[in-house]
Write a structure and sequence with these properties.
CATH class of chain A: Alpha Beta
CATH superfamily of chain A: Cobalamin-binding domain
Distance between the termini of chain B: 30 Å
Strand order of the largest sheet of chain B: 3-2-1-4-10
Strand content of chain B: 15-25%
Number of strands of chain A: 5
Strand content of chain A: 15-25%
Radius of gyration of chain B: 22 Å
Strand order of the largest sheet of chain A: 2-1-3-4-5
Number of helices of chain B: 15
Structural class of chain A: alpha/beta
Oligomer: heterodimer
Distance between the termini of chain A: 14 Å
Order of helices and strands of chain A: HEHEHEHHEHEH
CATH architecture of chain A: 3-Layer(aba) Sandwich
């Protein structure tokens, strides 16, 4: 495609935002900056973002991934049904990453992760994960996808 | 020197003469619009003007016209996601002065194309995808339009990565195509200017000829659709020109027989601290059109939307037979109230139309409960701080109820979530000259601004 030949072709397109009734603005902003610095095209939706807003922005911008932040403990509830809605909207193979403070209380991380993966979330990150970790995994996932398509 | 300015409406051709030295309106007159030959109506209006002042050729500096005759500028818009490029496309068309007759989103089907053909648009605005974003939808839609056999000029304002390809698809089907910048280059970024410029170009090059308005070209150049002239006037009055300040953020309500238009000039940012602003950014000069609110053709729908009780409240006393009233108005669209009570009914209808139209135009605040307490989300423009509120349309020119109608646009403490103007200075277009002076603004913005300030006096 012509798009691939353009000089400033991004490594990929990512929609970021803080899901649900959550107004923690800082982590998401840092993450968006880190993604941009790493060469991704970022659509940052800010705080109080609904599932529909994530999906609409991803469809218009032809996004490769959703980076969803949540710091107030309701991520699991807020992300329920998101994968299914993405499929309905034609985003068949969009990557969904969730991070921040995704579960309340002292829960076993392996259990938490299992529940998110079962919802169709591709990767979920425990508190205090540096942006770099998520970005490297995104690069890896996108490369793997390219190989499997080729 | 004089400027002779005509507003060729669907029913009347209204003419305004501005004295450029004295910077005021020298005369106004109107005559029935003559669709078969637009010049007859223009000539008749001119001779009615000449009953007031002579129009020697050597004193006329400009002759310009705007038009909403022959159905106005009918447009269909196509976007991808209804809330994103769909909405951006609609706003671009409305701001260009169009009558938006159809709004489509996602992938166009054969049924959609049949509906579009039946709507007989003058221009189709095709958008979809941010720059570098979704390509599939706009390519699919271009092919659907190309295959449908619909003959319509198309303005393409979508994903720039495939803009040329989209243009080629349409072009090879024999359609006239204008390719311009994306109405939404990024999610949450509105860029309606280039699409509006392209729409105006199509209007000037094609639509005027197609509607027979070019016959006026020898005497009067038709330079824009009427709503766009009103929006220009509003923008001029608000922003001002170098060396002559405007009035600041303002709202214009234009109550017509078929529609009620609301124009707002201002960025509409939240005025309260701690409010989160969501949704697509708002155009600085924003126009909305309510096709169901008009005090003649659409008087029955005002009754339908507002209900009997609300109209009686606006009237101040009980009117037992609103049904008969609105149907009479709808059947007799050139009706002029013959007594006080009929005039009061007109005012009540206009006020209610303004209440509803402004409510749909302005932004809203919604409370959401978060673990950190209640947060307020604003969608749309916060116009609580608007400095000025202008009324235009026949009801303001003819009736004594101007204040009552305009007050329908004001902030209502009972409904604080509707971000209407709180304490604006109210002005009225008594001579019905806003569109004409908006036209003049194309050539003489400073004079046009001073004429507007003078001829739209505060109430």
């Amino acid at each position: 495609m012509a798009e691939e030949n353009r000089e400033s072709t991004p490594k990929g397109r990512v929609v970021t935002g803080v899901i649900g009734a959550d107004v923690h603005v800082v982590g998401n902003r840092l993450l968006a900056m880190a993604l941009e610095r790493a060469g991704f095209k970022v659509v940052n939706l800010g705080v109080l973002v609904s599932q529909e807003e994530f999906i609409n922005a991803a469809v218009e911008s032809n996004a490769d991934a959703l980076f969803i932040s949540s710091l107030y403990g309701h991520a699991e509830l807020d992300c329920q049904g998101l994968r299914e809605k993405c499929i309905e909207a034609g985003l068949d193979d969009i990557l969904i990453y969730v991070g921040g403070n995704v579960a309340l209380g002292k829960q076993d991380w392996a259990e938490v992760e299992k529940r998110f993966l079962a919802m169709g979330i591709d990767r979920v990150f425990p508190p205090r994960t540096p942006p770099k970790v998520g970005i490297e995994l995104l690069e890896k996932d996108l490369a793997a996808r390219k190989r499997s398509k080729a | 020197m004089l400027a002779v300015l005509a507003d060729i409406g669907s029913t009347f051709t209204k003419m305004t003469v501005v004295d450029l030295e004295r910077e005021e309106v020298a005369a106004t007159a109107q005559a029935p619009t003559t669709i078969a030959d637009i010049n007859l109506g223009l000539q008749e209006a001119t001779s009615r003007i000449e009953e007031h002042i002579p129009l020697p050729a050597d004193r006329i500096a400009y002759r310009m016209a705007c038009s909403s005759a022959a159905g106005g500028l009918r447009m269909v818009t196509v976007g991808l996601i209804p809330d994103l490029t769909g909405e951006a496309a609609k706003r671009a068309a409305l701001g260009a002065g169009a009558k938006v007759v159809g709004v489509f989103a996602h992938h166009l089907t054969r049924k959609d194309m049949a509906a579009i053909a039946a709507l007989k648009p003058d221009i189709l605005l095709l958008t979809g995808g941010t720059d570098g974003g979704n390509e599939r939808a706009i390519l699919h839609n271009a092919a659907a339009i190309a295959q449908s056999g619909v003959r319509v000029p198309v303005v393409v304002a979508g994903n720039r990565a495939v803009a040329d390809q989209v243009g080629d698809i349409l072009h090879s089907a024999g359609l006239e195509v204008w390719v311009t910048e994306n109405v939404m280059p990024e999610v949450g970024e509105l860029n309606v200017g280039p699409a509006q410029a392209a729409i105006r170009e199509v209007f000037l090059k094609r639509i005027i000829v197609a509607k027979g308005l070019d016959k006026a070209q020898e005497t009067f150049g038709v330079v824009m659709p009427t709503p766009s002239a009103v929006l220009r006037a509003a923008e001029l009055l608000s922003v001002g020109v170098a060396g002559e300040p405007g009035l600041g953020d303002l709202v214009v309500v234009d109550v017509g027989g078929a529609t009620t238009d609301v124009h707002s000039i201002g960025d509409g940012r939240p005025t309260k601290p701690g409010v989160v602003w969501k949704g697509l950014p708002e155009p600085f000069a924003k126009r909305t059109v309510e096709g169901d609110l008009g005090i003649r053709y659409n008087a029955p729908t005002i009754l339908e939307v507002a209900g009997r009780e609300r109209l009686c409240r606006a009237l101040g006393y009980d009117e037992p037979d609103w049904d008969a009233v609105v149907h009479k108005l709808c059947a007799q669209v050139d009706y002029i109230p013959e007594d006080e009570r009929a005039a009061q009914r007109d005012v009540a209808l206009a006020r209610t139309a303004v209440e509803i139209a402004v409510d749909r135009h302005v932004g809203t605040l919604t409370g959401v409960y978060t673990p950190f307490g209640e947060m307020l989300i604003q969608r749309g423009k916060d116009l609580t701080g608007a400095r000025c509120l202008v009324g235009t349309g026949g009801i303001f020119a003819h009736s004594g109820g101007a204040r009552k109608v305009l007050e329908g646009a004001l902030f209502d403490p009972q409904h604080p979530a509707s971000l209407r103007p709180m304490n604006p200075e109210m002005r009225v277009d008594r001579k019905y000259i806003m569109a004409a002076v908006g036209l003049l603004g194309e050539k003489e913005p400073a004079i046009a601004l001073r004429v507007l300030k003078k001829e739209l006096p505060p109430l």
